Recover the amino acids of this structure.
């Protein structure tokens, strides 16, 4: 038995869009304590780690753990015209092997989506320690990366004890964005020594844009030439975390 | 040829993107024969330099390797050594087919039937020693590593994958699974389409990966049993297999009897001839002759050296060669800087 109700279906759509930046097929772990998903993009450069505890749903019923695998692009297509006040109910139909989606707003809409064969591979968590941990306004980070994406296909992220600097360099121009530790966009700033690493801008942009649609606060954590962890705060114990492998010069 | 397991194996279609950053061991002879058969002029003649040296296979190696390198794939070519003596009958059979095809080719050409001529020409492909030497020289100049197998190339390639030197083997044949390769990639072509034999139509082909562990789990058998099934269907060492036994029957029989040795009476009762030396054949797959004497290292291409060899000696167009080498170089630099998250899992 599996059934859940989400009071804000727009928020759910944003979270699904955040997952779809990396994978086409989403394989959720459905557990009595909530939904979870961990997946990498096909080239293994980026990872999304998503958890949504049962408390985050308006109603949540799950009697036994299972896998729920679906084409997330198709789900988003069905949810394209979702409105802010609509309630979303998800149930499984084991007979037809479909996921049923019921949207209730001004009127009722029902969609159903075929389930896919779940893949067997489990994705481990990267083992990392971070010299720089900076909590900041998600929209400001999004703006900074958008500026850089206009000139370069990679972002240099540097931090020392004073500030966080994002740089994009190319023949068409250079962009440098600075966040000093006292800046009002910065909520928490912990840097040991210095940290500096290079990342592909397109993944970073997709992640931050999608995450900023669901959360106002983001933590950026990294060390020199190591993956960056981008953690968006969600209400209750929800988790939307990305990892992105560095590029080396 | 190889063992025909296609009806039994679970496969997963891949995009080339998913193979980015991964290393694969290619059965060099398998690839070279493919190039010799496909890369031909419209009348079916091979490409040659002005002295008559065949260059079709060099063209294949250069363009395919550089296109794949551009997509982030790291190739290792594995060359056959001395084939196991059991293979001699298959080798003789192939030689005979080629001689017959040669005659039919001449005949069709005389009659002016070009399409027919081309088909027979494809069947005459012969790999001569100088072609292999040229291929190795070119790979070295390209910075693409190659490994000399003591015996079967497929066996050595499987060994490289088994020991973790490469992520997978790449071949059209399924034999490397019998040799124990944990992963086999098929259809590793860049074009995404393949011409159907004797037709002017093309089909979409995508790379696919077959995982040995998953294959064995889904069929509920061991690798030993997979080898037994291969012997019943037919391998390079007993091309005919057992008459009337296809993949599905073979699977059923081996599951029922547990192993080929216990099923002998089944074949005797039905007057079916099991290859006499089936135990020897099984041993070729289960204890293959392989070597630890190799070094796998991807290097940037020696552009000027490759241009001297291909354009100076083998009459390639310099512009096209430089473009291909440029892709190879770009792929190499990109890979050097690119890391995947896998590095931080262990």
């Amino acid at each position: 038995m599996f059934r859940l109700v989400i009071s804000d279906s727009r928020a759910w759509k944003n979270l699904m869009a955040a997952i779809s930046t990396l994978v086409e097929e989403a394989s959720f772990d459905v557990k009595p304590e909530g939904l979870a998903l961990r997946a990498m993009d096909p080239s293994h450069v980026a990872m999304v780690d998503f958890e949504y505890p049962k408390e985050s749903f308006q109603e949540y019923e799950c009697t036994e753990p299972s896998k729920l695998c679906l084409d997330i692009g198709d789900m988003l297509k069905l949810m394209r015209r979702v409105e802010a006040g609509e309630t979303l109910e998800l149930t499984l139909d084991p007979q037809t092997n479909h996921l049923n989606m019921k949207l209730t707003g001004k009127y009722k809409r029902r969609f159903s989506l075929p389930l896919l064969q779940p893949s067997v591979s489990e994705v481990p968590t990267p083992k990392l320690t971070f010299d720089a941990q900076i909590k900041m306004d998600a929209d400001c980070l999004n703006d900074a990366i958008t500026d850089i994406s206009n000139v370069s296909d990679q972002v240099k992220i540097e931090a020392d004890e004073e500030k966080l600097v994002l740089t994009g360099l190319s023949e068409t121009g250079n962009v440098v964005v600075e966040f000093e530790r006292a800046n009002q966009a910065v909520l928490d700033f912990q840097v040991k020594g210095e940290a500096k690493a290079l990342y592909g801008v397109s993944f970073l942009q997709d992640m931050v844009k999608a995450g900023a649609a669901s959360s106002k606060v983001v933590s950026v954590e990294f060390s020199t030439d190591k993956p960056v962890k981008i953690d968006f705060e969600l209400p209750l114990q929800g988790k939307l975390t990305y990892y992105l492998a560095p590029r080396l010069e | 040829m190889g063992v025909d397991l296609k009806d039994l194996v679970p496969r997963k279609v891949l995009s080339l993107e998913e193979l980015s950053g991964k290393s694969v061991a290619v059965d060099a002879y398998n690839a070279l024969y493919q190039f010799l058969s496909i890369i031909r002029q419209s009348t079916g003649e091979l490409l040659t330099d002005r002295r008559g040296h065949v260059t079709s296979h060099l063209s294949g190696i250069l363009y395919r390797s550089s296109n794949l390198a551009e997509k982030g794939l790291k190739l290792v070519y594995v060359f056959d050594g001395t084939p196991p003596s059991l293979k001699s009958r298959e080798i003789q059979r192939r030689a005979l087919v080629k001689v017959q095809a040669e005659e039919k080719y001449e005949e069709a050409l005389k009659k002016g039937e070009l399409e027919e001529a081309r088909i027979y020409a494809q069947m005459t492909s012969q790999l001569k020693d100088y072609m292999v030497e040229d291929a190795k020289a070119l790979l070295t100049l390209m910075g693409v590593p190659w490994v000399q197998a003591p015996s079967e190339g497929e066996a050595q390639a499987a060994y490289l994958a088994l020991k973790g030197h490469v992520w997978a083997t790449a071949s059209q044949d399924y034999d490397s699974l019998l040799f124990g390769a944990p992963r086999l990639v098929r259809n590793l072509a860049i074009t995404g389409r393949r011409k159907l034999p004797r037709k002017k139509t093309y089909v979409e082909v995508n790379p696919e990966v077959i995982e040995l562990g998953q294959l064995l789990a889904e069929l509920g058998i061991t690798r030993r049993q997979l080898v037994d099934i291969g012997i019943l269907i037919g391998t390079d060492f007993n091309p005919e297999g057992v008459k009337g036994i296809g993949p599905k029957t073979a699977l059923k029989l081996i599951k029922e009897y547990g192993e080929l040795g216990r099923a002998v009476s089944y074949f005797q009762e039905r007057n079916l001839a099991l290859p006499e030396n089936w135990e020897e054949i099984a041993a070729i797959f289960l204890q293959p002759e392989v070597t630890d004497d190799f070094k796998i290292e991807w290097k940037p291409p020696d552009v000027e050296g490759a241009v001297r060899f291909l354009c100076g000696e083998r009459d390639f167009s310099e512009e096209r060669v430089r473009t291909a080498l440029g892709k190879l170089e770009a792929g190499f630099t990109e890979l050097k800087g690119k890391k995947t998250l896998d590095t931080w899992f262990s």
